Amino acid sequence: MSKPLYKRVLLKIGGEAFAGPGGFGIAPQLAEDLARKVDGVRKLGVQVAIVLGAGNFWRGKDGLALGMDRTTADHIGMLATVMNALALRDAFERIGIAARVQTAIEIRSVAEPYIRLRTIRHLEKDRVVILGAGTGNPYFTTDTAGALRATEINCDILIKATKVDGVYDSDPRKNVGAKRYERMSYLEALNKKVGVMDSTAITLCMENNMPIMVMDLWQDNSLIRAVKGESVGTFIT
Fold first, then answer.
1. Residue 3 lies inside a defined structural domain of this protein
2. In-domain check, residue 2
């Protein structure tokens, strides 16, 4: 078995990965399936931190469309990511994996506050760290939170794990001839306005030389292949 190319990775996973029937809520079995995928790379000696979205509970744009205050809408989204984080931690514990939840907004009765050096220490002790509540600030997406945390804790790569197998030149669901990019530069990703990550997150990665892999999380062994450096999606660097 080939060795992993990366020692420490950050997974950015959308809340839709947990969604139950109708695309809403948390399906415990899906959380456990995700935990087992992460455990597969952990067994290779890879340290794993995870940033979660909240699309299975809340989308701020829906509130904004009805006149909701942006800061309030973003705070609701942050709290929703914490619910996903707690569910994922429980899934890890059910399969015997040590995991910790840290949040950018202090909720000490249910999770640790995010402290950079403590996060690194957990990773060094082979614990999976799940980082909730985004950056703790409104007006920033969980993609940007992923880019920020990956940079702060010295990850080797940011893996954007989605339900699509990379970045395409057009929507592959509408165009059967859509071309998938195997590699692209940060500037290409920004100029083409790729929909898989927002421009703030990509810019932050560019400024800190943090490579991004966009890949389909649910393909067999795709995560293991990604940490080994195989071409399983689109590599942005």
1. no
2. no
